[in-house]
Write a structure and sequence with these properties.
The complex is a heterodimer of chains A (about 100) and B (about 600).
Chain A lengths: L20 H15 L20 H15 L7 H4 L3 H17 L1
Chain B lengths: L9 H11 L4 E9 L2 E8 H18 L8 E5 L3 H13 L3 E5 L6 H13 L3 E4 L1 H14 L5 E4 L2 H4 L17 E5 L11 E4 H15 L6 E4 L6 H13 L3 E4 L2 H6 L2 H10 L3 E4 L1 H10 L2 H4 L9 E4 L6 H11 L9 E6 L6 E4 L8 E5 H5 L12 E5 L3 E2 L3 E5 L13 E6 L11 H8 L1 E2 L5 E13 L2 E7 L4 E3 L2 E3 L1 H10 L4 E12 L6 E9 L1 H6 L2 H16 L5 E6 L13 H9 L5 E5 L2 H4 L19
Parallel strand pairs in B: 1-10, 3-4, 3-5, 5-6, 9-10, 11-12, 12-13, 26-27
Antiparallel strand pairs in B: 1-2, 7-8, 13-14, 14-17, 15-16, 18-19, 19-21, 20-21, 21-22, 23-24, 25-26, 27-28
The chains are: A mainly alpha (about 100), B alpha/beta (about 600).
């Protein structure tokens, strides 16, 4: 897993800039909780989603929600490739920053 | 009622469409393009031309034995459809299979099909050809031709060289590998006559109009997606619209949007797809949707839940969805696809029966003082004759009695590929009074006034002291009994004790996160035992409590009880807490399991 912090060159005012990743994580945790039938406060950002018992339908659903919200294509296996809310958040922030500077 | 066969083979049907309306769209595939969907279409004339090219290339490439089947490894796009029709045009037996695009289970499955079917050729897309070639080499099966069917591969091949194949009705048109396990693949042999019979049965039962538009997200290598959603429209000169299951699960409203955009008249899904729409489609996403073109929405998974049908109709009634559109049905690959379905012009039937009588294999009206169970009617058998037979004595049972569903008719497949013994056992069954030639489905059900009610699978049935108990009933009772137990997160099965040779019931139940963290687990396990003793007179049930996500399900949402049983016996379940009877504990690999005393009865 590579979280390339040195790519943080996008304009700061973008709400999805990596510096705003905490906001992104709150949203992510909320959606993850919905699909895993839990309450958001049960989702710890550094606990692997596998520990909460994620199945393929939930994983694909989370992927679909990310695509819909941020209008980017992400891999259906994102929840396996980046196994925690924190890791997914960092990965997304990086992708969105790259999209911005393009 | 006899009806005139519209076409003898699928080839005839497609060729007829080509002559009548060459420009009409035959197939549309909706690709995911970021968050949006991008349609790719093919008309009848172009589908025909490309299929003729595939057939010509197959004939020219055929080294060795041209009677060996052709394995199709494609994403569910229009390339798959042209290659599939190309096999028909070549008179070769096709095998639709999932593209092994990821290592693991899927690759193992396709490898086992390759070996079992003695595949002679593989068709795929150019981008997968190299990887599939390497895989073929690794499997060590000689003389397998691998062709890719991209535009460049097909360029320069003259479609005019195509010679229509001479096929007999009894030739195997394709093999359906949907019902067997990876270790024991079973290829259902669907003949040209079977396919013609079932397409006609579907057309009659659904009152499919010429030029129908169907649409779904079902995989094309499974019977419902292939026979029902892709070949039925081709059979009547219509249009099939498809997207992938992944596209649907990501955004369930895409399915409904497809129905709206293409004015879809017929769709199909297992119960879980309708449930996903109810739970996940927001008001915002459904705003402006018009579903009034829909005439048939087949619900074909087992079990069909009355609650799902009701919730779906209620949620989308405001969008023009009529209640009679939702059609419970029963089908399986061994009958090509459809066995029975409800009437497209009338609401489906529901029957509330006495749960105690059902345990003794009888359908009786529910009594107010006892538990009832709602059964959803799966309609009347189409051209297939259905009998209800006692699976042990093989006696034919009267109306209202539950037994194994046996089938006979023109849609019943020719058997399992290369499995003469299994075929003889399951496809050539004979009743006690000497009626022969029936297929044993392994499903349990009853007929009442001509309506078929499917109640469960024999293999999963728990037989305790001569009573038949349905695992789904026990699972539901547990989940209804307390907040701690996760809905849909249970699996009930039996294991046979080594020493006593008796059958013991095991419950694996997921807990909600809060209960797992805060509740008294021994007390929860004891409560389950007490409940099952009280409700089902089951003493000494073994209870395994696990966290959420442990219960395995198929992609269509069916609980995999046989797999859960295996995982349990392998000691592979991450257990939060368990109470096991000694004969059950003795079956497990040696661990730190502390069994209850052998004679233990459930504590209150």
């Amino acid at each position: 897993m590579s979280i390339a912090h040195d790519t943080r060159t996008a304009p700061v005012e973008h709400p999805l800039h990596p510096d705003h990743a905490p906001g992104l994580e709150v949203w992510l945790a909320e959606r993850v909780a919905f699909h895993l039938h839990r309450s958001p406060d049960e989702i710890d950002p550094d606990t692997p989603l596998a520990d909460y018992g994620i199945d393929s339908v939930a994983a694909i659903s989370i992927c679909g929600e990310i695509e819909e919200r941020f209008r980017i294509a992400v891999s259906p296996t994102i929840a396996y490739d980046f196994p925690t809310v924190h890791a997914i958040g960092d990965h997304l922030a990086e992708q969105l920053a790259a999209k911005d500077t393009r | 009622m006899p009806h005139q066969l519209q076409h003898r083979t699928l080839t005839d049907a497609v060729r007829d469409g080509v002559h009548r309306h060459p420009e009409r769209t035959a197939f549309v595939y909706l690709h995911e393009d970021g968050p949006d969907m991008r349609p790719e279409e093919i008309g009848y004339a172009e589908l025909d031309r490309r299929a003729r090219v595939v057939a010509t290339r197959l004939r020219e490439a055929a080294k060795g034995d041209p009677t060996r089947p052709v394995l199709l490894l494609y994403p569910p796009t229009l390339d798959f459809v042209t290659a599939f029709i190309g096999c028909f045009y070549a008179g070769r037996t096709a095998i639709p299979a999932p593209l092994p695009d990821e290592p693991g289970e899927r690759l193992a499955r396709v490898s086992s099909i390759l070996r079992d079917a003695e595949v002679g050729a593989v068709l795929t897309l150019p981008e997968y050809r190299q990887a599939i070639g390497a895989w073929l080499t690794a499997t060590g099966i000689p003389d397998v031709v691998c062709l890719s069917t991209g535009a460049q591969d097909d360029a320069g091949v003259d479609a005019g060289l195509w010679v229509p194949p001479a096929v007999r009705d009894t030739d195997v048109a394709f093999l359906q590998y949907s019902s067997g396990s990876t270790s024991e693949p079973k290829g259902v042999m669907v003949t040209h006559a079977n396919l013609a019979a079932n397409e006609e049965a579907i057309r009659t039962a659904m009152r499919t109009p010429d030029g129908v538009v169907t649409g779904s997200w079902l995989p094309l290598y499974h019977d419902m997606g292939l026979i029902g959603m892709t070949l039925q429209p081709l059979w009547v000169g219509g249009t099939s619209v498809q997207m992938s299951p992944v596209s649907f699960i990501k955004q369930p409203h895409r399915w409904l949007r497809m129905i709206h955009d293409y004015r879809v008249e017929g769709t199909a899904s297992p119960d879980f797809g309708y449930d996903l729409c109810v739970r996940r489609v927001t008001e915002e996403q459904s705003a402006g949707l018009d579903l009034s073109t829909l005439r048939v929405a087949l619900n074909g998974a087992e079990p069909v839940r009355a609650g799902t049908l009701r919730a779906f109709v209620q949620r989308f009634a405001g969008h023009g969805l009529r209640p009679e559109v939702v059609l419970p049905s029963y089908g399986l690959a061994e009958n090509t696809l459809l066995v029975s379905s409800g009437d497209t012009e009338a609401p489906h039937l529901e029957l509330t029966v006495d749960a105690h009588a059902l345990e003794r294999d009888e359908l009786r009206p529910a009594r107010s003082d006892r538990a009832g169970r709602i059964l959803v009617g799966c309609g009347r058998p189409t051209d297939t004759e259905a009998l209800i037979v006692d699976p042990v004595s093989l006696e034919v049972l009267p109306d209202g009695r539950v037994g194994e569903i046996w089938l006979r008719g023109p849609s019943v497949a020719a058997g399992y590929w290369n499995r003469p013994e299994l075929t003889a056992q399951t496809f050539r069954a004979e009743t006690a009074d000497g009626r022969s030639g029936y297929f044993r489905t392994g499903d349990l059900g009853a007929l009442l006034d001509g309506e078929l009610y499917v109640t469960g699978r024999i293999k999963e049935m728990l037989i305790q002291h001569g009573r038949n108990l349905y695992p789904q009933d026990i699972e539901q009772a547990i989940q209804d009994s307390g907040e701690a137990f996760r809905r849909g997160g249970g699996a009930v099965f039996t294991v046979t004790g080594r020493a006593d040779g008796r059958s013991h019931v095991v419950v694996v139940q997921e807990l909600r996160a809060r209960a797992a963290a805060e509740d008294d687990l021994p007390q929860l396990a004891a409560a389950v035992q007490a409940l099952l003793s009280r409700r089902f007179q089951l003493a000494g049930v073994s209870v395994v409590l696990v966290q959420q996500g442990v219960i395995r399900k198929t992609t269509s949402g069916k609980t995999q009880r046989t797999l859960m049983r295996q995982l349990f016996l392998d000691g592979a379940l991450p257990v939060l807490h368990q109470r096991l009877q000694r004969p059950v504990a003795d079956l497990l690999p040696a661990t730190d399991v502390t069994p209850e005393p052998a004679a233990a009865s459930p504590r209150p």
